[in-house]
């Protein structure tokens, strides 16, 4: 896998992972179904999926070559990007009018 494909893979995984808590009513995406799912569970899932996505990026970077040390700026930008990628799921879950409510 080349560097460009690895970047696109991480971005695609981040977009899917950032929206997954909003489209699923299951606890931690595989547990029992809760309707409505509390916001605290969604935030916990968002944090866990962000860490998994970050781990995927670190793994791919290590496979392509030497991992570079990162400062706090990298992590701040990564979290902001992850939250921004989750905006469509947030709109779908909280701002859209549901017909059956």
TrEMBL record:
The protein's superkingdom reads: Bacteria
Matches recorded under InterPro entries: UCP019883
Give the transmembrane region(s).
Answer: 6-23, 43-62, 74-95
**A Pfam entry, by short name:** DUF2818
Record keywords, A-Z: Membrane, Transmembrane, Transmembrane helix
- Protein name as catalogued: DUF2818 family protein
To which species is this protein native?
Answer: Roseateles violae
